[in-house]
Structures are given as structure tokens and as C-alpha cells.
Amino acid sequence: MSTAHEGEGALGELLDPELPAATYVLEPDVVEPLTRRIVTSHAVGTHRSTLPFTGAPLAAFPLSSPEDVASAVARARSAQAGWARTTLRERTAVFDRLGTLVLERQSEILDLIQMESGKARRSAFEEVADVAMACRHYAVRGPGYLGERRVPGMLPVLTGVRVHRRPVGVVGAIAPWNYPLSLVLSEAVPALLAGNAVVLKPDPQTTLSALWVAELLQEAGLPDDLFLVVAGGGGIGAALVDRVDHIAFTGSTATGRKVAARAGERLIGTTLELGGKNPLYVAADADLDSAVPGVVRACFSNSGQLCMSIERLVLHERIADAFLDRFAAAVRDLVLGTGLDYTADMGSLVSAAQLERVTRHVDDALAKGARAVVGGVHRSDVGPYFYAPTVLDGVPEDALCSREETFGPVVAVTRVGSDDEAVRVMNDTEFGLNASIWSTDVARARRLAARVQSGTVVINDGYASAWGSAGAPMGGFKASGQGRRHGREGIEAVTEVQTVAVQRGARFGASLDTLYALGGETPSRVLSVALGMMRRLRLP
Ligand code: NAD
Q1: Does 69 contact ligand 1 (Cβ within 6 A)?
Q2: Residue range 259-290, pLDDT digits in tens
Q3: What would the DSSP string read from start to end of 96-118?
Q4: Ligand 1: which of 64, 178, 242, 356 to mutate, judged by most atoms within 8 Å of the beta carbon?
Q5: What distances in angstroms separate CA 71 from CA 41, 66, 259, one per listed residue?
């Protein structure tokens, strides 16, 4: 059975909202070194964030106005000009140091992430590991991704063409609350390395983590004003879209559509990392010993508040009952808790709004005839926003959770009689972010993967092998997004491509002008002969 761990350690003294010290769990003078980094001057208001573990007020900080957004972008633009002129070696050195610093100072950010998001420490550590991997990857491979490329010119030898990657200028990043460290830096690291500046608008609930990132970047040697944070909600996000040169948005599909429309008006580039309704197929030949713990992690890491999290479990009927028995037992054993330590498997949902959404989805499915194999209840005994890890069977087509993203610890089971049927079920969604296939026949699983409409397909794992492979692009098909983060694609997205073509030969009388000076039909005849020869020689 799930065991609640009462708030232990540092958090224990802060749990009682009646204590004067708990007016804000983090007192103003503790957070001030972070909050003074917010770009704000017009005192448009104050935001109060909440400690999800208890519902107590966590911290208060000033909000930015649209004028502050304009000023942040102007400051970033002026700093970016000098940054773009630095060498790639100077820039990669910053991210080398950042990767080391994030590991050295991990306990600070792990506490902060847990306090802002309510997640278990092991889910918070995934963020630290992800950032360390992304820094290492881009420090090593970034210069190669950004290097100039020679391509064959119009006239062999006489036309020299090089293709360059130039920074776009100021990249606006809009981030959600679910991975406040990792999602911020997976946009910022490639953008900065490419020579851009970044203005970030985090979710209000996780603003302190974003400000800690700003502090860390400064310590790693990033010059002033290249990474600025504005604080606020959707209005400030929209103001950012109106000013920057590229928008890297991570969040829901509904908001992504609005951001895309606004960015489209300005003809700026976008990278949109949106929602999912991710399926996981356990084939008839899967190794259940490794599948059971792997599928538990795939469904319930970060309480299911993970874009790549599995919400649809597709089981081959030959193993369905055996798998489900063992899976349900493992889910019942998950430990829920509030400690700032590694004792809990699963933490809280982030907010009352998330709890309401998860409860609504589960109650709706149960009312329409589904059965809760495990869970299906609010765990207020652990904390105000905790929800039990939940496995639903027999969810009808018209239930909310069969089509909409729940974004919580809820997975629905479907049984299939063949791989073909599994592929059909997996693709039967408007989304296409992540999918997982479990089979001992990897070649067969690869063939199935080719038929699944999803940006990542992970074989014999839920999500970590794709997300953690920083060199591999990650993003969505269909309504799950546009563009990719990570790898070559992630850094190319925040650059403009520039072709520089040099025409040689004028000094030796071998220019196009010399040719056209021949007059009449002659230039066309000469060029036709030359084109014919190039075709025969298969010159590109
Ligand atoms: P959300 O769309 O409500 O908010 C995301 C961010 O957008 C927040 O910072 C918010 O303040 C801002 N915002 C809201 N309205 C805006 C507007 N009109 N213009 C500009 N910015 C605006 O999403 P959420 O609930 O915070 O996050 C959960 C969602 O994010 C889920 O759907 C999840 O799947 C998705 N997500 C996707 C990925 C991915 O990589 N594909 C990663 C994490 C989360």
C-alpha cells in the first residue's frame, strides 16, 4: 500500500501554515537574491506561489509589465550583438562550466524544484541529469552543428558557395511548470551557444527555479543581459511573442496554437513542444520482468505530469491479464511523499487546478463504466494535491481521458489481438509525441515503430532513453508540436541560414558578364552545352 511520508527534514518545520515563519515558506530575504533578477520596473503586481506539498504560500515576487518585456528584449538585443562576435570556443566554455556547476550545486536546485513543483526528488534529479547531458552534448558537438558548409556552386570551380548558420537574435522562451530546470535550459543552451540572447518567461509557479538558472549561467561565465527573466502569465508570454525573433514554446496544445498564430503574424520562427496522449504497447513476447517496473516509471514519473508520460496502455491479449496483475501490484507499492529526499517514488500534483483536472477525468471515466484497477482517489492524507497512481480498465471511447491529455498519474488499459491492431490503436489520437513498444524481438519492434505516428518511439523503455539522448531530436508529430529540441535540429532551429556565393574568374575573363557580352543566342548555347556536360558527369 502507498505510505505517506510526513514532511521530513528541512521541510518538516515549514509545514504548519500557522507558524509565523511559514507566512511564506521561503522568506522574502531568502528569495530576494533570486527575485531581484526579474526584469520589472512598473510594479504591476505581486505573484504568490504555493508549496504544493502543503498548499502553504511559498514565496512572493513582483511581476513584469509589457513595458518590462520590451525593455528586457532591448537589453538582450544590445548584449547579443557582442556575444555573436565571440568565438565558438569562448561560448562552449560557458556550457562546459554550466554542466559541471549544475552537478556541484544540485542540492540547491533539487530543493527548489521540489518546493515549486511538488515532485519527488528522483524526478527532480532527472532534470539535473538532463541539463548535464545537454551541456556536455552541445559543448562537444555544437561547433560541428554550427560550422559552415561548402556546397557545389553554379559553375564548377568558378562559383564558390558556403552556407552559414547565423544567430536569429533574441530567442523568447516560454516554459511550463512541470520541468522547470530542464525545459528552460534545453531551449537556452543551444540558443545561447548559437550566439543568441534569451528572454525567458517561466510559469509563475516555477519562477524561482528559472531565476536560479539565471544565477547559474552568470556563475558559468555568461555575460550580462544575455539571459533575462520576465515574470507573469499568458499576457506577458504574448507580449514576448510580439518582440522576439524566434519563440521556443513548451506547453499545452491549446496555448501552442495561439502562440503559433501570433508568431505567424510576425513571420518569426517557432519551436512548439506541446501535449501528448502517449501509448505504450506490451507485445505478446515482451519480457514482463523488465516491462513491469519500466512501465510503472513510464506512467507515473513526476506523477504523470510529463509530456512524454504514458497515458494509454495497449496490452496484447495473450499477456494482458498476467501483465496487469503484476503491474497493479507494483503500482500499489508506490510510495507517495513530501520529503526533500529520495524516500518517495511519487510526489504531488502541482496545483489545485491539476488536481481538479485529474479528478474530473477519472470520475468521468468511472461514471461511464470504467473500473479502477488501482487508485482513482484523491490522497489528501498525504497532501492537498496528491492523487493516487491510477490504472483504469474498460474506459469507454467517449470518456474524457480516452482522448484528452490528463497530465496526471492515470493510465487507461486497452487489449488488442495483434500488432496491427496495436498500431491502429496507438495512432488513433490527434497527438504524436512519444510512444513505447515492449518486445524481446527488437527488429520486429523497429518495424512497428516505423508505422507509429510519433516524434519518439522508445523500445523497451518508456521515455528516458529518447529524452536523455541529447543528440537525438525530440518533438511531436500532429498536434504535439512543430520543430524539434535537442541535437542538430534543436540548434539549427534558432539560427538563420545564410548562403554566401562568390563568383570567381572575372580577372581571367571567365565571368558571366564575359559570357553575356558574346550577345545573341551564343550565351544560351554555351550554357546548354555546359549543363549537358554537367548532367553527363553527374555533377550536383
Ligand atoms: P500552458 O499552455 O497552460 O502554459 C505554458 C506556458 O505558456 C506558461 O508559461 C504560460 O504562462 C504561458 N502562456 C499561457 N497563455 C499564453 C499565451 N496566450 N501566450 C503566450 N504564453 C502563454 O501549459 P501548462 O499547463 O503550463 O503545461 C502543461 C502542458 O505542457 C501539457 O500539455 C504538456 O504536455 C505540455 N508539455 C509539453 C512538453 C514537450 O516537450 N512537448 C514538455 C512539457 C510540457
Answers
A1: no
A2: 999 999 999 999 999 999 999 999 999 999 99
A3: HHHHHHHHHTHHHHHHHHHHHH-
A4: 178
A5: 10, 9, 21
